[in-house]
TrEMBL record:
Organism, scientific name: Peptostreptococcus anaerobius
Occurrences of domain B12-binding (ranges): 95-219
Highest rank taxon of the organism: Bacteria
A GO cellular component annotation in the UniProt record: cytosol
A GO biological-process term: homocysteine metabolic process
Gene3D superfamilies reported for this sequence: Cobalamin-binding domain, Methionine synthase domain
GO molecular function: cobalamin binding; metal ion binding; methionine synthase activity
Stretches assigned to the B12-binding N-terminal domain: 1-94
InterPro entries found in the cross-reference section: Cbl-bd_cap (IPR003759), Cobalamin-bd (IPR006158), Cobalamin-bd_sf (IPR036724), Met_Synthase/Corrinoid (IPR050554), Meth_synthase_dom (IPR036594)
Name of the protein this chain belongs to: Methionine synthase
Gene: metH
Family membership: Belongs to the methylamine corrinoid protein family.
Amino acid sequence: MSEERKKELIDKLASYVVDMEDETIADLAQTYLDEGYDANDGIMDGLVRGMNEAGKLYDEEEYYIAELLLCSDAMYEGIGVLKKGLEDELDSRDRIKAVIGVIEGDTHDIGKNLVKIMLETAGFEMIDLGKDVKVDRFIDTVVNEDVKLVCMSSLMTTTMYLMKDVIDRLKEMGIRDKVKVMVGGGPVTQKFANEIGADGYSDSATEAVKVACSLFDRK
């Protein structure tokens, strides 16, 4: 094994995501594992970096939603292989259970999916409610599944205020102090997170992992 070879493969993983190579990326990911390189590095420095680069191309209007979805397909194909190589350093009893979803009225979930995957690799046990999630479903999941972290997102100013309703309901039920709440999404800001009483905010999937770990004093 060599660092030069590792970098070569990681750069290829990133470029395969950007180039939407969803049919061939699995073989590349398997080669990366077979040569003995760290699976987490492959995900974070390769696949996730590639998806972030694709997101920038979307923001610059060089890619449209169709291309972005194909990039995400490639990323998921690669992650499906690399996740098998992740060493589970945390005992299942030490995993923090979290629920994640896009708030009701919003169906944009690419960012949410990326955050979910990255939190899983960081040792969180994720319950994915998907998109267009009602306030009551968030609350029911917290209560029934003994959730310690709630992650909500919205890309629409018309729906983002429903995230405050989730926090208010947690307060009404007397369990707000037992649950950490993170919010994110295009129109969401740190100021908004502070206003609604969230514990954390991130403007990217990478930052979301850092924030989540800091909320539970984890590296």
